[in-house]
Amino acid sequence: MFRMITIIMVVTLLGICLIGCSRDFEKRIAAMSSSSPNMEYGNGVFYFCYVGDDFGARLSSFIEQHPNLEVSAMASDDTGPFGHTRGYFVIFKQKAQ
């Protein structure tokens, strides 16, 4: 009985922590510029947060501001609650002349 109550409490606390983290994440996204990636890792690797239609507008604006770059690859970041997409890693390369 004690073991069952402990498991339920741990699962409940973990769920509360995950929900709290995702709310903080959304606040940070809202504070960021709509025309730039949220993080640059170097070597052409950028991270763009995904918030509905905002991702497309942000990516389009970035491409417009960097006409010398083209998208080489993209991968989704599905680490949000319940496997929801939080953003995309986008790899750019120099356009061939």
What does this entry look like structurally?
With 97 residues, the chain is α+β, with helices and mostly antiparallel strands. It is built from 2 helices and 4 strands. It has a 4-stranded antiparallel β-sheet with strand order 1-2-4-3, with helices on one face. The longest helix is centred in the first third of the chain and has 29 residues, at 2-30. The protein is elongated. The termini are far apart.
Task: Offer a concise description of the structure.
Helix content is 42%, strand content 27%. By secondary structure, the protein is an alpha+beta fold. Strand 1 (39-42) and strand 2 (45-49) form a beta hairpin.
Q: Biggest sheet: strands, sense, closure?
A: 4 strands, antiparallel
| Low-pLDDT sequence parts | 28-34
Strand tally is 4
Strand content: 25-35%
| Rg estimate, integer Å | 18 Å
What general form does the structure show?
elongated
Mean pLDDT: 75
Distance between the termini: 70 Å
Number of DSSP helical runs: 2
Measured as a percent range, the helix fraction is 40-55%
Structural class: alpha+beta
The sequence of SSEs as H and E is HEEHEE
Q: Identify the strand order in the major beta sheet.
A: 1-2-4-3
